[in-house]
Write a structure and sequence with these properties.
The first copy, chain A, is α/β, with parallel strands linked by helices. Helices cover about 50% and strands about 10% of the residues of chain A. Chain A folds into 2 domains: about 170 residues, Rossmann fold; about 200 residues, Dehydroquinate synthase-like, alpha domain (Up-down Bundle). Chain A has a 6-stranded parallel β-sheet, sandwiched between helices. The first copy, chain A, has a two-stranded antiparallel sheet with strand order 6-7. The mean pLDDT of chain A is about 95. Chains A and B meet through strand 1, helix 8 and helix 9 of A and strand 1, helix 8 and helix 9 of B.
């Protein structure tokens, strides 16, 4: 059996999509909403105010919970769960990017399931339902607006842990996608978001076993589209076309489409290798992925060079696999993304590489990857390469 | 506002997908199922037997209703509605191709809504719910397994009418897509199905207004994939790759993906022009589309040649719009599909063209098309061109 497709999120797309928020919430029978958001940007832009006025006009009650940070924290999730439980909240509205969405999903799981919400993220319990979640997206990156995943950082432990959970209960009910809301995203976050988008497709592309050609070709199309539109969005932040293409690329890259018909869900080693960096050092997820991908690719290339050849041809018209890796790195650098750990502003020595590798494998308790299965020693080597030490 | 995306159907994909039928139905709480199918092929292949054994083992009751024909009839739909209402049926399982699916959807609407089911198809009433439907697909063509549409022919009137209704209630709960079940599809039906798949994307591609570049590029990828895989499936009917690519192309071509971000849902004139042929003369839908598309394309070309240029470049690497139309027609002929009405085995004179054109516009009561809005006279001209009379 191959990977199927299940993406039930109702997507409204286009300029002004957020104007539908009250109407859509009414359709789900929402009466009291937790409006969840991050920092001040949704306040400064007037978006939050606009949303809350819509809710008020429609007679929908709400309570605010702001303060979500990149690599969202379980401590704020616990606050959200308390609010949902104590204030009769029946719907959670995420207004923001992937971190806000992931935090909203976690609140949904915890409020529905009771007990310690971290249990779901460290694998102790399975998610068996959720308070319904919808979103107004303000950043093209994580794909959380259609994906089944949520990644949370436990800031109550030392070292901190960053863990993800994937479940169909994480498919939000609706996503309002207005490309214009991403006009104000900074150059760095735009570029980092584009890398994240590309990686969700690349991680699925690299796997052992059967690959459906149509899915490969859709993947190449998506990657070409991100490569084409990111520089435009960086130069002209208010270019609707560029922002719209990137926004929809973000959703399709992580809603499962790019694995359909394949024999498994992909490699995902780079995500694990990067999570260790962003959990500990709070780097931007996309930038962290750009910093390690090239080293990962060179390390695993020999496993199946043909897969790299097909990728290169499909994305760059390039049939040399090493040059294909270089072309991805050149693209990352062209949008000011790092291609090594130093570029993240971190100084990694051998001990840091060793520590991070052990962190990824939960102290040698698991392997990661599917295209090539990686043990602690392999991950150590990749960190060493990405640190210029090998 | 642009076209959004809502495709909640849970798709299981791959060899043996149909083995999950009882488990999936149990998940929806089905207790008594209407097993709806067409002619003898699902009996001869043993598929029906296998499905019914699964249901019996799982303690799920069922009643059979076979006999769906291509261009499915409202008379059989009425029988199905009676069975659902009188026998306590709580789920409809379509086992077959698009006709069986469309018939199953109509039964669902009628059994839920009461009254005359044809009202939904001639626009007298809106669909407001359905008895849930799921499917095991045996033919890659109509995309009904993920689409919101159902097309039914009223065989109780003279002339007969073929009418479609689109509603989110038409999104079936689940689709079990096993490419191996299409190995036995005839060459003619395979080719006709491929044309149908291409047309669902082409109809969306041609429209006036804003087009999202990513969606255009996805459309070209899908069209290239159908063009690549159809000849392989014709030569090697049991080539898993070719059948799997075509099957997934069929679903994505008509689930709405190929219009996301665009300002409207497309042209659809060719479908209307073809429906008139297949309602009256019972030709295969895809073959009918192939027979009229080239004439439609030449007739509307001047409206916006650039749209044809982009299509030609994306699909064939061809920048001349007239040559692009010819290349589509060459492809149709290469898979033994007709490119004129004569090729359908019909002799159309001027009177027949006039009658058909008036049929399309409901006796001059409507226009069709969006890329170019067509009146009765335009449609008459297109029929004349497709008949070699102009």
């Amino acid at each position: 059996m191959s990977i199927g497709f299940y993406a039930p999120t109702n997507v409204t797309f286009g300029a002004g999509a957020e104007d539908k928020v009250a109407e859509v919430l009414k359709g789900y029978g929402a009466e009291k909403v937790l409006v969840h958001f991050g920092g001040g940007s949704v306040k400064r832009s007037g978006l939050l105010d606009k949303v809350e006025k819509s809710l008020t006009s429609a007679g929908i009650g709400f309570i605010e919970l702001g303060g979500v940070v990149p690599n969202p924290r379980v401590s704020l999730v616990r606050k959200g769960i308390e609010l949902v439980n104590n204030e009769g909240i029946d719907f959670i509205l995420a207004v923001g990017g992937g971190s806000v969405l992931d935090s909203a999903k976690a609140i949904g799981y915890g409020a529905y399931g009771g007990g310690d919400v971290w249990d779901f993220y460290c694998g102790k319990r399975k998610v068996e339902g959720t308070v319904p979640v919808g979103c107004i997206l303000t950043l093209s990156a994580t794909g959380s607006e259609m994906s089944d995943s949520s990644v949370i950082t436990n800031d109550e432990t030392d070292p901190v842990y960053k863990r993800g959970v994937s479940t169909d209960f994480g498919r939000v009910k609706f996503s309002l996608l207005d490309p214009e809301l991403t006009y104000t995203v900074s150059k760095y976050q735009t570029a980092s978001g584009s890398v994240d988008i590309m990686m969700h497709t690349l991680e699925r592309y690299f796997h052992q076993g059967y690959a459906l050609d149509f899915t490969d070709e859709l993947s190449f199309t998506l990657l070409r589209e991100v490569i084409k539109n990111t520089p435009i969005a960086l130069e002209h932040p208010d270019d609707y076309d560029a922002r719209a293409n990137l926004m929809w690329c973000g959703s399709l890259s992580h809603n499962g489409l790019m694995a359909v018909g394949n024999s498994n869900k992909g490699d995902w080693a780079c995500h694990q290798i990067e999570h260790e960096l962003s959990a500990e050092y709070d780097v931007a997820h996309g930038a962290g992925l750009a910093a390690v991908w090239g080293s990962w690719a060179r390390y695993v290339l020999d496993t199946d060079p043909d897969r790299f050849v097909k990728l290169g041809k499909g994305v760059f018209g390039e049939s040399d696999p090493v040059k294909t890796i270089e072309k991805f790195e050149e693209f990352f650098r062209s949008i000011d993304m790092p291609t090594d750990i130093k570029g993240l502003g971190l100084e990694f020595d051998e001990a840091a590489c060793r520590k991070a590798a052990l962190g990824v494998t939960f102290q040698d308790a698991r392997t990661i990857g599917n295209f090539k299965v990686l043990k602690t020693e392999d991950i150590f080597n990749i960190y060493m390469m990405a640190s210029g030490l090998k």
